[in-house]
Every structure is written in C-alpha cells, then in structure tokens.
Amino acid sequence: MPRLEDELRAAMAAETAGLGAAPDLADRVVRLSRRRRRRLLTAGTALVAAVLAAGTVIPGQLIGAQRDPVAAAEQPARADADLNAVEDVEARYLPAGLGAPLAGSGSAGKLDVATLSWGSGDGLVRLSKYKKALPAGPGRITSLGLIPGGKAASIRGRPGLVSPDGLDLLWHERDDVVLRVTVGADHRDELTRIAEGLWFPDPTGSGGGTLEGVRIADLPDGVYLDREVPASSTEPVTRKEWSGQGGRVRLSVVRGENAADLDALRTWLERTDGFEAVRSREAVLRTAPAWEGTTGEKGWGGRPRAVLWHDRPGLGFLLEVAPGMEKALDEIIAGLGRDPEPDDRLCEAPAAGKAADVLPGVIVPRIPERLTAGAGFTDLESLSEPEKVTVRGHGWSDERSVEEGGSALSVGVVCGVATERELRALVGHARRAAPVRGRPAVEWVNELYGGGRFVMWLERPGAAIFVGATPDLEAEAGRIAEEIRRER
Amino acid sequence: MSGHEEFAAFVAARGTALLRVAHLTCGSRDEAEDVLQSALEKAYRHWGRLRAGSDPEPYVRRIVVNTAISRARRRAILHVFPAPALPETPAGDDLTGVELRPLLMDGLRALPPRQRAVLVLRFWEDMTEAQTAETLGCSVGTVKSQAAKGLARLRALIGAELFTEVIRHAEA
Q: Which residue ranges traverse the bilayer (chain A) (predicted)?
C-alpha cells in the first residue's frame, strides 16, 4: 500500500518539475557578492572586521623601518578574507569610504608582517601585524626600530610608540605580536580610534571565553586577552591572562595530585604562587570550596587579590586580579559557569519517545487553570539568528486563537547562549529588562501573542529561559518567571 | 580551473536541484530564487576555503535550507502562517493520488519552517536522519520527532479518511 511519504515525494516532484535555475545565476551571484563586499568595506561606523591573515612570506621584498614597507608586495585582498577567522586580528572601526583593500605580506628585519591597506598618500590607512622573534624585556617596542624617534603611547593599556607627526602608531599587543596603524594626513584624527578597535577576539568565546571547562562570562571592561599558556613539565599549570587599561586578570588551572583536595591545592599554591589565605569564602560554581587571599606574583602593582577553589579531586583553580579590583573579582566569580554545565538538564535532548513535548530540567510553576496545554515547539520566531541556538518550548492556551482575542502563554529554554551580550543579541528588537532573580534579562513585544510581552533571562551560561504571554496574562507570566526553577 | 570557473560549473550543474530544495523549503518560487541567490552568495564568499576536491553541495544545501528557515520565521512575525483553507465539503469518492498532491503541498506549506525542512530533506532529498540532523544543526532525536509530527499534521490536514480513500483509489 502506498504510504503518505510516497505520496509526499510524488507531490514534491510534481510541484518542482517545471523549475530551473536561471542560466546567468552564477554570474549574478558573483557580481552581487563583489558589490556587497565593496559596500561592506566602506561601511564606516558599522562593525567592519578586516582580517590581517598571516600570509606567505615573500623574502627580500620588504625593508623594515619604512612608512610603506610592504607596498611592493600588496595584492587585492582575497574575496573570502573577511569575518571571523580564528586567532586573526579584527578591526572594529575603519573610516567611511575607504574602498577595497590591498593585502600584503612579507618580512621586515626579523619580523614577519602582514598588512591590509586602503588608499595612498594623505588618504592612506594601513593595518600591520608583526610577529615572531621580538626582543624581550622593557623597551623592546623601541628596539624594533620601526618608528625612529617615536614617543611613548598607550593603546588599551598596551605599551606603544607614536611617530612625531602623529600618523604612525605601533604597540605591543601580545608577547609575540606587534600591531601598527599607519594613516595619511586625512585620517590623522582617527588614528587612535582605529588602533583601539584593532585586537584579537578570543577564539574560545565572548567575555573571557573558556578555560578547562570553565566559562568566564563576565570580565571587567577594558581588559583584553594577552595569552593562554598551556601546562608544561616545568610549569604544571595552565594559565590564561588578560590586561589593559581596565586592570589585570589571570586564571590558572592546577591538575593532578597538587589539586587532590582543597588542602593540597592551598599548600601547593602557597609554595609556588606565594598564596596567603585571608579567609574561607562561599563556594565557587555553587559547590567548590574556596579560599580568598593574595598571591606573591610580582609586577602587578602590589600583591594580587586571589581566590582559589577546589572543583573536584585533581582539579583546582586560582583566579587573580590586580589590587583595587576586588569588586571585579566578585563579579568574575559570579559569572563563572561550567561549559557545559553537567549538573542540570536544561539543555539535554528530550528522552527518546518524549520528543519535544517536554521541557527537561525546568520546573514550571502553576499555570492558570483556564489554559490547557498545547504542543511543544522548537522554534521561537522572534530570534534573529535561530540557527545558532536550539529552542525547546511549551505552550498553553484557551480555546480561542490569539487573533480571536484568546489567551496564550509560552515557556521555553534557548540553549547555546553563553553571555549577557549574546542574550541581548538573540532578539533583534529586544531591550534590556529588570533582572529576573538576579539574572540578566531582556524583553520584547511579540506580535504573534497579540503584542504581549516576552521576557528571557540568562539562567546560566549556556542556557536562557523565556516566558511570554498575551497581554491579558502579563501578571501571570511575571509570576511564572519569578517562580520557575531549574531541576537539579 | 579557477575558483570562479569552479563556482560557475557547480551552479550550472546543481543550481536547479538546489532551487527545488529552496522552493520546497520556503514554499514559493519567488522566495526560493531569492533564498538560493543569497545562499550562493554566502557560499561564493567562502569558496576558497572549501577543501579542494570536496563536494560543495552539502555545504551549499545547508545554507539554502537554513536561510529558508530563517526567512520563514521572520515572515511569520509579520503574519502568522496562514494554514491553507481546506475544502469545506469532504472530497468525493473519485479523488485520485494526482488530486491529493495539491492538498499535500498546501499542508507542507502550512507546517512550521523547521518541520517542513525536515520533511523536504528526508523525503525529497532522501537523506538519512543523521544527514538531516547535520544539515539542520540539530539532534537526530529532533529530526525523528519533527518528521513524525510533520507527517501527523499532514495526515490530520488532509483527513485520515480522505487519505485512505485516495490510497484505495491508487491501488485500484
């Protein structure tokens, strides 16, 4: 007997039999793509990410310490050299109307260099990334000889040099990377702004990204990733460091017998990092016992403030901040989460056979009796980029449709949202709302619910919960948002 | 062959097949052409990163389907997906499989975007549940449940009795 699936196949075949792609489709796509790319690159205040991809070295073509060291090696930038390349530099600000860039690469003295530049003469904007073989120690930025006679400057707290004419700015972004912005006279006033928008995004995620399964959602403003140093035989600790005008932060991970328990961890850090306990403190990440104190690390403008915690046998952490950042220390700890968190079921797939009609891990409080439960759903139409997250929700309604003046209420979980910033970006027209049980929240009006209000909050890094309803149920939805709980 | 030539050859060979997927996933020809063009633009921007010798079609198909789903969701904010009006009176005994097809397509268009995409990938593209899950970026469990729900809704839309009648005719 023919099945519904077979009839559906036949229906699809009949429906699409007369379709054919236009003969000039490929050409049209290429033309549009190029036109759109030109517009993107001249978008000015829009977020423009220009990648300085480390290209092939072209020996002998470049000479260091010159204003235009790579001009001879420049080629039109590849069409695909655009957004989101891991570990590359992103420019968050470029002046408007620059046109298409030229990409260059080569070597300048002992340094490899990659550049992206627009225009020439007074209209020049050039971004350069130098890497490898930097001399160590104070004054190393000067010793490179790239800007003779340069004066000391600071970009986002990084040491740098600016040329006497104010058109060339060079700074030490990381241990092995120096960045440089060179402009013509037309862009003199924008030199600093371009430079301050040029940095490495953290490839492990927004905020402070992740380290050894811990997600650092809330870093203080004005600190930027310096480096992540893996454990080695001489230094059996993995460390991740951030610094900038906002201060200095370091998270270290201790594994093995040195972190067998809280006492072993504390003893070991006392010996290796000069940890001095001041008092025990409430558990970190809900369950990990912790000590608060200082460490003996030099060069932080005093003894760094620190918190150590023992996560589980064989795994301990030490978080340090510069003196004066005590409030930031508490905020960083409050924003820590596990990635993924193993101890709740919010983002678990529904058990086999239960499909999407259940909300694992959520204890939903009392629903108004006049509403009856409808089907579960896996789409939330308000999301701007639904492909980046997964949704599981459940709805209740009375007998009438919303268009007929009926009542409807929905509760659900959005998985794949790690930080408050990502939460705010989930729904394009959402605005910040009052926190829900202390958690950051956004709200928006949902036309599918007759203009009713939806609120969504970051329940924990990785998962947001939303509640929404038609206008007549706004008070009930507010109560449900306050009373809803995670199942542990 | 240059990247541009490879891209043009790919579009010439697979453009129509991808247009059909786009049409079934988003429900209208105009929208499908727009979705396909937009998806091909995205693919073209990253053409150089596709591994030499690898088949770009799964990558492009994934963009097509997910673009169609995104657009359908945005459109749904403006007007709740209108379920097509089904016949007020029961179909007569002489309904055949050919006459059932428009009903099925109307039913398909009335499904939520992701449910519709699951049915298109499973039963038009003949993908396995795992392939469908990979294309949509969801779990196999979601594909199973969405396919089951989609088929159930189609059955409900066209009416179980009507469907049985049609099948009986088709066998006759």
A: 40-58
Contact A472/A458 with Cβ under 8 angstroms?
A: no
Predicted-complex ipTM score = 0.84
Gyration radius from chain A CA atoms: 27
Nearest to A9 among B100, B123, B170 (CB): B123
CA trace torsion B158, B160, B162, B166 (10° rounding): 100
Task: Specify the pLDDT at position A263.
Answer: 94
Mean pLDDT in residue range A28-42: 62
pLDDT for residue A73: 42
Domains of chain A: 3-66 (no CATH), 72-199 (3.40.1000), 210-338 (3.40.1000), 362-486 (3.40.1000)
CB B132 within 8 A of CB B69: no
For chain A, say whether B138 makes contact (Cβ under 8 Å). yes
CB–CB of A21 and B102 under 8 A? Answer: no
Cβ of A12 within 8 Å of Cβ of B105? The answer is yes
* CB-based contact, B156 to chain A, within 8 Å: no
Mutation target for A interface from B11, B63, B125: give the one with most A CBs within 10 A: B11
pLDDT tens figures, B114-130: 889 999 999 999 999 88
Contacts of B37 in chain A (CB under 8 A): 25, 28-29, 32
Cβ neighbours of A69 (radius 10 Å): 25
Flag if A9 and B41 touch (Cβ within 8 Å).
Answer: no
Mean pLDDT computed over B32-40: 88
Per mean pLDDT, which range of A270-279, B88-97, B148-157 is the poorest? B88-97
For residue B57, give how far its alpha carbon lies from the nearest alpha carbon of chain A (Å): 14
Residue A23: how many other CB atoms lie within 10 Å: 11
Q: In this predicted model, what pLDDT tens digit does every residue of A156-214 receive, in sequence order?
A: 888 889 999 999 999 888 777 888 999 999 999 999 988 988 877 676 666 788 887 78
| Model confidence pLDDT, tens digit, residues A139-153 | 677 777 888 888 999
Beta-carbon pairs below 8 A across chains A and B: 154
